[in-house]
Predict the structure.
Amino acid sequence: MSNLGEVLVTARRACGFTQEELAAAAGVTQAALSRYENDLREPEPEVLARLAWALGVTETFLAQAGRVHGGMAIDAHMRRRLTAKPTVWRQLEARLNMYRMHARHLFEEVSIRAEQRLPALDPVEMTPADAARLVRMQWRMPLGPVRSLTRWLEAAGCLIIEEDFGTTRVDGLSQWIDDHPVILINLRAPTDRKRLTLAHELGHLCLHSVDVSDDVEAEANEFAAEFLMPIEVIRPQLRNLKVGRLHDLKREWGVSMQALVERAYHAGLMNASERSNMYKAFSARGWRTTEPLSDELAPEHPALAGSIGNALSGKGLGPNDIAHLAGFATPEHNELFPARQPRLRPVG
């Protein structure tokens, strides 16, 4: 049974179109589009072609996405604030679903071999902190701060996509694409927040790929804290923590000063009163909204998706070929696997 209607709704939402806007762009009535989206009627081939073009995808993509087992509109793990508008995070969730399907479309034709893998772990059998230690051990990561977190994730086959969410109230979201995980992160976030978001989503991907417990956010937070700041290593540095010391620790560990305070508090190295006083000092300096030093941290920029595009280009595929392999209507729509354009060399 086809879930084409679900695909049309997800693709429309990802583009930010209302039903009326997509109907106008595809040259159909809103009533007809409503029937397509509710699987009450199959669009004719020429109508499907117009809908695909309006949505920036190929007809094959729409047809194949509609046949995916379990449907398309899968809920994503999402790191967002309570004040984030539902319209915003639903569009981001739809975009992640579309990226997931585009990657799936491409991976059916092109295989990528990862150096590492993301293990599926059971949060009932082990604590999130133990899970974080296990992942670090399996990946043979050095003790201490995590350098280039993005590279470690991409080496494990994790597809990371960075884009401007248009808000600072959503940090990131994640899903699995068959054997490959995908994370969408907010370009607007400072580096320390991006790193915590990546580690948080890694926790979701490892701990919540099958069974979901009652407190997934707390588990992902605990995983991220131990993954980025292993307590056995950082404990001596967090004792008798003072505001002035936080600058150096932020530079060393690549995390926010607030994350360091929370790490000290949850490790029992700071009591509630000391934590409250620390945050009062932050507020007095304006650090609760904008922390200093974030722009001094080594930036985290994903490279795997671009490398896949470049590898395909190196094998002789043109921009149109790559776009169609991933299910995009044109190279301009292909925001996921862009290939570098070859430089023209002057011929003497």
Observations:
- The chain has 16 helices and four strands.
- Strands lie at 77-80, 159-163, 170-177, 180-186.
